[in-house]
């Protein structure tokens, strides 16, 4: 398909006009639902705006790839992987970047940004692209730092990528993406999703795991 991306720079944030970014847009748009596509784009815009607010220098192209791929692992092809969806997403981004001969340090940054985007309290202390993928996700999904971005900028981003019924729809996407591998939610936020939406789900217990380990007391 021909990419006819909107490069009008909502909120003054342009999408990187590079071959790598265009091919990432095409791949993700052809792979994920409209819900995940729009969410991923908003993550890029909101992450960029938070980077501007925090005066953090970052590579827009790497941030864009991280944002676009970060939820790819929720898709049906990965339901039986047995791995956290964040790792499946990160691995797909790594394959894409290596196929385009991107330097390994950049590949590592993107992989880490995606793999840690649901691990609060860590990414903010890492490389800018790692910190800002998480910042974009936290903004769009959780509303963290909601008032850090002005009303006009927020409205411009949402006008380009609307979020009708987003709260319930994204929770549904999370549920569908991990319900087939509930063991991967041990110790992370997706256990909360399954506890709410999957009858009979029993979350792992860290304390019980220690006490029941084969080690003698």
Sheet of most strands: none
Low-confidence stretches: none
Number of extended strands: 0
N-C termini distance: 62 Å
Could you state the order of secondary-structure elements as H and E? Answer: HHHHHHHHHH
- Structural class label: mainly alpha
Task: Report what the structure shows.
The chain is an all-alpha fold and 217 residues long. The protein has ten helices and no strands. The chain has helices at residues 19-31, 34-53, 60-69, 85-99, 104-115, 128-142, 151-160, 166-178, 190-197, 206-211. Helix 2 runs antiparallel to helix 3 and helix 3 packs across helix 6 (128-142). The radius of gyration is 18 Å and the shape is globular. The protein starts with 18 loop residues before the first helix and ends in a 6-residue tail after the last helix.
SSE diagram, text form:
Layout: H1 19-31, H2 34-53, H3 60-69, H4 85-99, H5 104-115, H6 128-142, H7 151-160, H8 166-178, H9 190-197, H10 206-211
């Amino acid at each position: 398909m021909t990419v006819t991306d909107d490069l009008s720079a909502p909120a003054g944030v342009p999408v990187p006009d590079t071959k790598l970014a265009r091919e990432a847009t095409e791949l993700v748009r052809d792979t994920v639902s409209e819900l995940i596509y729009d969410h991923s784009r908003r993550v890029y815009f909101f992450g960029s705006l938070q980077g501007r607010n925090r005066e953090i220098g970052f590579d827009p192209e790497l941030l864009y790839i991280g944002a676009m791929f970060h939820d790819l692992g929720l898709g049906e092809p990965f339901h039986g992987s047995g791995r956290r969806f964040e790792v499946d997403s990160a691995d797909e981004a790594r394959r894409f970047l290596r196929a385009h001969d991107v330097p390994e340090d950049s590949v590592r940054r993107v992989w880490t940004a995606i793999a840690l985007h649901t691990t609060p309290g860590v990414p903010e202390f890492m490389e800018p692209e790692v910190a800002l993928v998480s910042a974009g996700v936290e903004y769009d999904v959780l509303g963290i730092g909601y008032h850090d971005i002005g009303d006009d900028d927020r409205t411009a981003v949402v006008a380009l990528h609307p979020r009708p019924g987003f709260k319930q729809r994204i929770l549904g996407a999370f549920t569908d993406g991990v319900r087939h591998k509930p063991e991967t939610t041990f110790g992370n936020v997706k256990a909360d999703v399954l506890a709410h939406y999957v009858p009979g789900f029993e979350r792992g217990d860290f304390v019980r795991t220690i006490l029941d380990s084969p080690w003698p007391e």
